[in-house]
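Message: Study each token:
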Amino acid sequence: AAEVQAPLLVLFMSDGTYASVRDRAVEAKLTQRPLVIRHPRWTDIARAFGFAADRVDTEEGLRNAVRAWD
């Protein structure tokens, strides 16, 4: 999509962990340390692929970002 400049809206949501694996670690009373993403930089990855990217942390921020995209 970036190569041909096609409009594409991608919402990426993260809870800061690998939740599906983390839940099992919690159940097994294992360390969760390797399953926590300390400082995710997902916007940097999106930009590296040629996409515009914004990080929002609130519902209002999400509304504003979607309006700006349109």
